[in-house]
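REQUEST ID: PR-0412
SUBMITTED BY: lab tech R.K.
PRIORITY: routine
TASK: structure prediction, single protein chain
INPUT:
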Amino acid sequence: MVFPLEQLVEYNGNIYEITVAASLRAYQMAKIDDPEIEASHNKVVCAAARQLFTNKVTYRIEHKD
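STATUS: complete
OUTPUT:
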């Protein structure tokens, strides 16, 4: 599976936020040996980005006071 560039180009949100979210999700997936990693030919960041772009996983920003 290839990194979802077409979805990245069409994304209207904050690119920095989605990049950070994908990085954190990739870290989580690597820790738990998520089966989607194997489906993405062991490309963890690609699998994480795809989950975010397809809204399988969502993220939120926590503001610290």
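NOTES: The mean pLDDT is 81.
REVIEWED BY: pending
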